[in-house]
Amino acid sequence: MNPANADLLDIARSVTLQAAELASRRRSEGVSVADHKSSPVDVVTLADRETEALIRGLLADARPNDGFFGEESGAEKGSSGLTWVVDPIDGTVNYLYGIPHYGVSIAVVEGEPDPLTWRALAACVVNPAIGEIYTATDAGGAFQADTPIHVAPAVDLSQALVGTGFAYDSAMRATQGAIVAGLLPGVRDIRRAGTASLDLCFVANGRLNAYFERTLSPWDHAAGALIAREAGARVTGRPGQAPSRDFILAAHPLVAEALQQRLIELGA
Ligand code: LIP
Fold first, then answer.
1. What is the CATH number of the domain that holds 200?
2. Number of domains in the chain
3. Which helix (H) or strand (E) holds 195?
4. Same domain, yes or no, for 109 and 167?
5. Across residues 212-238, what is the average pLDDT?
6. 208 and 125 inside one domain
7. Residues whose CB falls within 8 Å of the CB of residue 263, separated by 6 or more in sequence, listed in order
8. Measuring CA to CA, how many Å separate 101 from each of 4, 32, 112, 125?
9. Same domain, yes or no, for 144 and 181?
């Protein structure tokens, strides 16, 4: 592991775990909607905002010259060439409903904070509800706690357990629902668990054979994409493109090829 990336990972892990503790404590105290964002079902809680404020402060203390790019408080350029990409509570609707499947997601990237061009250097995702922690560094492998993780062996698409998710926009959901309806008969099954960062970690540890989604924000996938890639997954956007809001897919390379082709046939 690159010593510089190891130091960045130590910071990411420490900050993510502290944020996870706060998010879990606030959940146990009771959670309510603080505001709506892009649609009546795109919600933010006070805990989202409080958790991001904690993360932002800890990162500013540890890495004062780095940039920040968070879901709730926006972007701030740094002078170091590195940016921390943060989703304080990914899976906000699960969190609001008390479903124990949400993630604190932190990645540090080199270059502009644009998923089409950045290079992720270190990443950490924690599910506070069940205490699972996932980490990775660029070329340093992916881990669940201290155990190295790897994607599941290749399977035929018909045997693939495929994760996906849906937008907050109702018109886009109709399109996405039609695509899932066309895909479902040709795969083992579909899982829609509600947290992109954990979906990507589940590809990394073999709990999913594949995952794809459209309309994700950069903070949803910044950390999980590095973890999945370091676990041996192909993590891509449209063919030949990097993951972005338009499209992300992660799977064993052979499964990714078959799923990508099927999704093109379905007009995804
Ligand atoms: C969520 C993603 C999920 C997607 C949801 C939502 P949020 O992020 O993690 O994969 O399907 O619609 O975008 O809004 O909870 O941070």
1. 3.40.190.80
2. 2
3. none
4. no
5. 98
6. no
7. 179, 183, 212, 249
8. 31, 17, 30, 12
9. no
CA pair distance 268, 256, nearest whole angstrom? 14
Name which residue sits closest to atom 10 of ligand 1, judged by CA.
Answer: 196
pLDDT digits (tens, 9 = 90+) for 65-92: 999 999 988 899 999 999 999 999 999 9
Residue 103: pLDDT over 90: yes
Hey, which of 195, 199, 249 would you mutate to test ligand 1's pocket, going by the most ligand atoms within 8 Å of its Cβ? 195
Residue with token string 């340093």: 140
- How far is residue 33 from each of residues 3, 19, 36, 41, 254, measured CA to CA in Å? 41, 19, 8, 10, 42
Residues 24 and 131 in one domain: yes
pLDDT at 40: 81
Examine the fold and report which residue of 148, 168, 194 is the final residue of a domain before the chain moves on: 148
Q: Which atom of ligand 1 is nearest to the CA of 71?
A: 16
Q: How far, in Å, from the CA of 54 to the mean position of ligand 1? A: 21
Residues 13 and 77 in one domain: yes
* Measured CA distances, 203 to 85, 160, 161, 231, 251 (Å): 21, 11, 10, 8, 6
For residue 156, give Cα distances in angstroms to 35, 209, 259.
43, 10, 10
pLDDT tens across 186-223, in order? 999 999 999 999 999 999 999 999 999 999 999 999 99
Summary mean pLDDT of the chain = 96
Q: How do strand 119-127 and strand 132-137 relate by DSSP bridges?
A: antiparallel
Structural domain including 39 reads 3-148
Return d(Cα 175, Cα 186) in angstroms, integer: 18
Does residue 1 surpass a pLDDT of 80? no
Instruction: Judge if 114 and 190 occupy the same domain.
Output: no
The DSSP symbol for 159 reads: G
